[in-house]
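Dear colleague,

Following up on yesterday's call, I've attached the two folding results inline so they're easy to grep. Please treat them as preliminary; we haven't cross-checked anything against experimental data yet. The first protein's sequence and structure tokens come first.
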Amino acid sequence: MPMPLPRRRTVLAGAVTAAAVTALPAVPAQAAQAAQAAQAAGASAYRWRNVVIGGTGFITGVLFHPAVRGLAYARTDIGGAYRWDDRAARWIPLTDHLGWDDWNLLGVEAMAVDPAHPDRLYLALGTYTQPWSGNGAVLRSEDRGATWRRTDLTVKLGANEDGRGTGERLLVDPRDSDTLWLGTRHDGLLKSTDRGATWAPATGFPVTPSPSGQGVTLLVAAGRDVYAGWGDGDGTAPNLFRTTDGDRWQPVPGQPSGTAAKVPVRAAYDRHARELYVTYADAPGPNGQTDGSVHKLACASGTWTEVTPAKPDGAADTFGYGGVAVDARRPGTVVVSTNNRWAAVDTLYRSTDGGRSWTSLKESAVLDVSETPYLKWGQDKPKFGWWIQALAVDPHDARHIVYGTGATLYGTRDLRHWAPEIRGLEEASVRQLISPPEGEAHLISGLGDIGVMYHERLTASPSRGMAANPVFGTATGLAQAARKPSYVVRTGWGDHGNGAHSHDGGRTWAPFATQPGLAKDAPGPIAVSADGSVLLWTFVHWDGTRYPAHRSADHGATWSEVATFPKGATPVADPVDPSLFYAYDTASGTVFASTDGGRTFTARATGLPAGDTQFKLVAAPGRAGDLWLSAKENGLYRSTDGGAAFTEVGSCRASYALGFGKAADGADYPAVYQVGTVGTLTAVYRSDDRARTWVRINDNRHQWGWTGETITGDPRVYGRVYVATNGRGIQYGEPV
């Protein structure tokens, strides 16, 4: 999944110190900030909901509680954790209270339940282990995630890095509910003896952590013993360890070795047969696996048996193994998943005789994606799955199997009919938002990984699925002609073209007849003139390299380079005058403008904040030359003369994203919305008086981590606002 902004790193040294902080549901520091912000900006009550798409991200783990029917949890790589509400048949988000400063905690590395105490839940949080990221944390709840206590760690966790589908890396000790184990990527095995309040390195764990490896990939209880997988081996050294007393760890004798067993991915214990099943691969996944195997250990005798359902051929059909789950009531019934099997498509294998024989469930599967049509990816039917590492069998219903993919969570109740079990779980990383001033749709969105969506209703997944002709992976640009809203253009990463235009407001699309050569490897943002006659497309490679913009005056039939446009800048069309375009050169802090329909650009205002590629220039709707610049920690600036001069807006300290919506009754200017900092609190704000004053419109329960990409109001509904998140989809709020 996409990565948010970089942050600093603190390196572990010595014992792991931690401070427990109450969060009901917001921590005291957040409450204090909220009070300060309320004094500075006031507050307005809003109701917040997800715009429904359904899933759209990597489900990395699913965990049923062994003792409570209908109680389950899911984790994601960048979108937090969820609890299944069996009565409502939907997922309840559990980590939306994490705010701007805690964006790195929206990735869930691992989760754990206590079999003896059904209300207890533990989450290990931390998205990246890079130098710019923050440290991880453990959340612990006594009421199934309704409220939390928090422990900040001095180590980093990597929920959106390679190996994020392994695990679980967090475990309640089967001998003692007060003892927890946490496997880290680069800092070894940690242990807590006070239910996660404090942590220290586990003694006796016999391997040396690596600053760049996988570390502990899984923790699983088998009876009263605990097993730990180790992902940094070379295929010859032991990579599965066991403790029988919680103090001494030893390699498990006789364990498999070789390339196909290099990384232990997941494990499941059949308590009736007293057998431990382990899936292996030659890489942690979800990408990069070409070989793998499945083995089981008879825990009483120590005998290992290979039970691999199908072996990769090393040529066209390459893959590893990912998920594994057992039937809690029937010995010898086990399900495993392949992973990274692109040629033949991944599948689930099920055995009822302890792995002696297997049946693939893919061939007989009937997939119903009518509730989330985007899963067809522009084809006639959906594929069974990819990135299948999360896999679970309901301990109270063996025919209820769920498995996660890179976009959804499928479930079955009869081993044949499958449908997404995803209601309430939204994980899209959102890049662009348009709320049209007229037409059927109130929202069009550009997303990471799943292209562009046309939302006829906010409460149902788009009936047309993702925009096709062509289908994109990640959208890089989305624009609408201000005076001709039926004309919309989009750009992005695709295999069959990187740009398209629509003449019916985004309902249907046609690819540009041609595209510049740069488009395939560096598709960037796009703008369209107010009357829809001119396109400006800029190009930015994924590595950050910037290229000249190109212009088309015939809807993409031909293109010409615009040499005077600042390389890689985001083009902005004036919403009134079709001849006017603008661009902000973040490298020099200079605004450029064109008065000849984008043919040439000249510098206007200079000396503005520079050096950050994520500064955003936005044009106010219905007004020529009315420009706003969100300059992050450098504040907010406004120009009313087409960028010739800017004045700093002193009502906020920082501005990360800014947009406009319908004006309040009696107001002569659109409502202004921003994600910014007023006083000391970074939050979502609305202004009805041209940014002289601000009202906070989100609250401590609805923060969603990093929300700095884009925001827009609805031009037809006063007070309605759409907020882009990096992992919690599109949030929309309305006054109550």
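Below is the second protein, in the same order (sequence, then structure):
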Amino acid sequence: MAMATSTLQLTHLSSPNIATPHEVPFPPLFLLPRCSSLRETKQIQAAIIKSQLQHDISVLTKLINSCTANPSSSMDHAQHLFDRITQPDIVLFNTMARGYARSHYPVRAVDLFARGLNLGLHPDDYTFPSLLKACANAKAIGEGKQLHCVAIKHGFHHNVYVHPTLINMYAECDDVDAASRVFDKILEPCVVTYNAMITGYTRNSRPNEALALFRKLQASNLKPTYVTMLSVLSSCVMLGALELGKWIHEYIRKNGFNEYVKVNTALIDMYAKCGSLDDAVSVFEDMQYRDTQAWSAMVVTYAIHGRGSKAISIFEEMKRAGVQPDEITFLGILYACSHTGLVDEGCKYFRSMVDHYGIVPSIKHYGCMVDLLGRAGRLDEAFRFIEDLPINPTAILWRTLLSACSSHDDVELAKHVMERIFELDDSHGGDYVILSNMFARAGRWEDVNNLRKMMKDRGVVKIPGCSSIEVDNVVHEFFSADGTHSESRGLHRILDDLIKELKLVGYVPDTSLVVHADMREEEKEATLRYHSEKLAIAFGLINTPPGTTIRVVKNLRICGDCHSAAKLISMIFGRPIILRDLQRFHHFKDGKCSCGDYW
């Protein structure tokens, strides 16, 4: 009877065409590759034990392979089986290392390797790639450097399989310079190695080096892959380099990479974040097949460009197409509702995400809800939302509410929020600046001085405003009131004249944004005049053809005075201006902004 029960339990692993229950051979090793859980693997192991083959090395090896195929739930059992083998070979060690590299405890692969060396085993071509991947996943650069030394000792540092994983390990551990040194020593790098280095530069926010290496790859006899294009497009996003992105798009078309859904999705993301909504829509509409990621990218695109209704429309179309939304899709739809004041709709989608789709909210989803309520002025409700969370709130959540307090000038609540932030992180300069500006607007100069002293005592510095603009495939950067750019003096004079023209059509500098009690009005005006986004816009006016769009990227939130000035500049000069700040895109045209001044 027991045998019959075991046989029936195993039959659900096989297809109807393989065998009937009484015909299933024991042990049914041919079913191991089809196991999708540890429970199923253990069922077959039970049959193996009944067949008295539990000590057979080849059988144990197959069981270990099955466990490492699903390492998140099976590595402990794989280790238990591995420990029963008195003389494991290097192939088994490599299998275990691959499993650990994908598990929650990747560094255990290195400990296992040390054990293998003590047993006298010699690594082969497949040993170091798994070990280095484990170190990359764990960000264990110390162990990674030791493995690098061992690879050199055993003569594997020139191995074609080791090169890319070694580069990736250093890059993932935030030492991209070490990765670059490894790459530079390779006499004839293959395309996989190029990809590892280009990706490393991109992930470490060094897009210029990534693009330079891509050009070097093009000059070689090697053909880039779709992986190359994904990293190159990410670099364009970091630079806000639309024209370069368009050239990359044409390269993708000519080389057939537009057949890949991932590449098209990356193109949507690139166009969206470089400010060209129309191009992003065009790529999406031309896709023959769209997966969840592609639909989500389009939802996010409409969201960050302030098209809340379109984001909702594309989300509903996605559901009608039978495509299941994921956590990214809901991030986009919540962001869209937040930035267009659709509070009730946002709350409805948040409940739907949890109740209907069973998606557990992440800290980012909670952040969108705090932002949604905070922007709408429902500050107390936002405060209670954070207080009632099922997880510990982060400093970022409280910062979101602090920003909303600033927008609605609720100084007392901002003080309470600041206390919560300081309990978690007191090193972020932006927090001090926001509260200091609120105190200044309220005339509480003693509180302003106390905050500034606190910043000085704690060594906290304010992040300078920086704006960039791409002209003729060259990205120019400007810092507020900075004269380091070669054309800064000329730009200052142009801005002086530009502000005079703006005043003729009603522009009034908002000097309340300059919170220095000892400054005269003229000095405050001068400070506002040379903000980085105004410098970048002025540079665009004189260096691009009349009528063309000016595209600017800023590292911080655009200030209210620059927002007002940009609207008037777009009207006076007939120049559309697209400005991407830390939170969203602003499309200025004919004296209006796409945000409807809700930002």
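For the second protein, one point worth flagging: The chain has six domains: 1-63, 87-181, 188-285, 290-360, 382-462, 466-593.

Best wishes,
A.L.
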